[in-house]
Amino acid sequence: MKRLQHALLLLALAMAPALTHAAGKVDNPAQYVTKSVSVAGVVAKPLTLSVAELKKLPPTELAGMPIVCQSGATMEEVKQYKGVKLKDVLDKAEIVSKDHNDNKKMVIVATASDGYKAIFSWQELYNSPIGDEVVVFYEKNSKPLDEDEGQIALISAKDLRAGPRHVKWLKSLEVVKLF
To answer: Residues 58-93: pLDDT tens digits?
Structure first.
């Protein structure tokens, strides 16, 4: 029962977006800008990566993508994202799996500096096409990100509605074993 409560709590946190993220625009976005992203939790090598350090990882680009919000409305059309695959960031931190079934129980919680959260399962990142297009990005339309997204953000390009897992002002990635 406790395991189920833990899983439901994580799901509730991901589904209850912070007001600043949900509204899209904030009065003072500069207060949320992140200059690095940390990776912690069930990892062998906790990390804190700046944009310069992210650029040392294998780059990836996504092209021609609309950002569709949960309601189905298109928020914006993006020509290009440049960044690194979330899997490459997690591989650098080395997810700890003591048992071959541990991975089935892992989730990654992406958190923004305004409190917004999005969740990915290990299975969808490493065992489905979704994982190839979940990107920690630092450029959009061939330019560094502006204050409205921070210096580092995340997007899941294979989602039918990418808006709910578009994490502006990405602050941290936490690997959690649910049970």
So the answer is: 999 988 766 656 565 555 666 788 999 999 999 999
**SS3 per residue for 101-131:** CHHHHEEEEEEECCCCEEEEEHHHHHCCHHH
Question: Sheet harboring 47-50: ordered strands across?
Answer: 47-50, 36-41, 170-177, 106-112, 117-121
Q: d(Cα 140, Cα 9) in Å, to the nearest integer? A: 33
pLDDT by residue (tens digit) across 3-12? 545 554 455 5
Own/partner pairs for 157-162, CB < 8 Å, 24+ apart? 157/62, 157/65, 157/81, 157/133, 158/129, 158/130, 158/132, 158/133, 158/134, 159/130, 160/68, 161/68, 161/69, 161/70, 161/72, 162/65, 162/66, 162/67, 162/68
Higher pLDDT, residue 158 or 76: 158
Report the alpha-carbon distance of residue 18 to residue 13 in Å, rounded: 9
> What Rg do the C-alpha atoms of the chain give, in angstroms?
15
User: Which residue type occupies 109?
Assistant: V
Parallel, antiparallel or unpaired: strands 106-112 and 74-85:
unpaired
